[in-house]
Design goal:
heterodimer, A: 155 residues, alpha+beta, 7 helices, elongated, B: 225 residues, mainly alpha
Chain lengths: 155, 225
């Protein structure tokens, strides 16, 4: 029912923004001015979001109930946390999101944070699991395992 | 009547004399008593001074004894400390000095033997061959004993020097190993830091992306996603 809305978001930041937009629309419903909803849908929210909401409202749904359920649906999205060493571009977020949708399934979003300390790769947190695939860890493991060989080399 | 008057005057006169004598006796007694008390006071004072002097002397002697004991303890401690801090360096110096001393002694003994031999030759010229032979034999025995003693001293000195050298060598080796280990650790730290910094700067954006995709695939293969 809300898949068209959830398809609008790729990351946790986008979920927060969309939730705020939905809340804005919800507040407009309870204003005395009849034109308030129209104004918000026109200029207060993003065009794709406004389009989806307009279509839903045109079908005669209970607006307040629909908006509440939409927010709950956004909260239920599965989140994969990615800690990376760089600021991802929009194109890169698209690629990562496509990979996740294809390999994990729809209804999954990314929570991307930047941490230069990890050098490269990523630290992934998902379903309570913490996996360190960073370059920092790999370099440390390399030095730890290869120390005897390196010691001989330096002597 | 006349006799009565004489008797009365005589009685009065005698009484007066008696009174005078009694007065003199009383005064004398008083002086004696005064002298007695003065002497008694002097005696007690002298006795008291004597006691005070004795106590002072005892105290002085006690202090002196304590000081002597303290000094003796200090000296003993000093001797013990000096003995315990007889370092390896000192042992080496000691061994060198022993060697010098033995060499010097050997030379002295040799010189003394030569002189003694000459003197003995002159002195023995006039005594019999038997006595000369006996003396020569004794001299030879003495020479041999001295030679052995000198050899033993040299050997001991050499042994001491060798022991000290070995000890120092072991210590130097241990120190070198510790320093080597510390340097190795530091090299690895520096190397790790350099590689980390270089890798962080060298990676391009598409390489970063590739590494993240690889990480996701690895996570998927572990059924974590």
């Amino acid at each position: 029912m809300f898949s068209d809305l959830t398809k609008l978001v790729r990351t946790k930041k986008e979920v927060i923004t969309l939730s705020q937009e939905i809340e804005l629309v919800n507040e407009a419903l309870f204003q005395n001015r009849p034109e308030a909803l129209e104004i918000v849908l026109k200029s207060g929210v993003s065009a794709p979001c406004a389009e989806i909401l307009k279509n839903a409202f045109a079908k005669g749904v209970d607006k307040a109930k629909y908006l509440k359920q939409a927010k709950e649906a956004l909260k239920k999205l599965k989140v994969i946390s990615l800690r990376v060493a760089f600021d991802p571009t929009e194109d890169m977020i698209d690629k990562l999101f496509s990979w996740v949708t294809k390999n994990v399934g729809e209804g999954t979003i990314l929570d991307i944070t930047k941490d230069e300390e990890i050098i490269g790769g990523a630290i992934i947190v998902s379903q309570g699991h913490y996996l360190d695939f960073s370059l920092r860890k790999k370099i440390r493991e390399f030095f730890s395992k290869q120390r005897p060989i390196l010691t001989k080399y330096f002597q | 009547m006349m006799n009565t008057q004489i008797l009365i005057y005589s009685t009065i006169f005698l009484t007066a004399i008696l009174g005078l004598v009694l007065g003199i006796v009383a005064l004398s007694f008083r002086e004696i008593i005064k002298k007695y008390y003065a002497l008694k006071d002097e005696y007690e004072k002298t006795l008291k001074d004597q006691k005070a002097k004795e106590e002072a002397s005892t105290l002085e002697a006690k202090k002196l004894a304590e000081r002597i004991i303290t000094e003796a303890q200090s000296k003993a401690q000093l001797i013990i400390n000096e003995a315990s801090t007889f370092s390896t360096k000192s042992k080496e110096d000691f061994a060198i000095e022993v060697k010098k001393a033995t060499t010097s002694q050997l030379e002295n003994f040799q010189a003394a033997l030569d002189v003694a031999g000459k003197e003995a030759g002159l002195a023995f010229g006039s005594i019999s061959e038997d006595v000369r032979g006996e003396i020569n034999q004794q001299m030879e025995a003495l020479r041999s004993a001295l030679g052995q003693e000198i050899t033993r001293s040299q050997s001991e000195a050499k042994k001491l020097i060798e022991e000290a050298y070995e000890k120092v060598e072991v210590e130097v080796d241990a120190y070198r190993q510790i320093r080597q280990r510390q340097i190795d650790e530091r090299i690895f730290e520096i190397l790790e830091t350099i590689i980390t910094n270089v890798a962080g700067k060298a990676l391009k954006l598409d390489e970063h992306e590739e590494l993240v995709i690889e990480a996701l695939e690895e996570a998927k293969s572990q059924n974590v996603l």
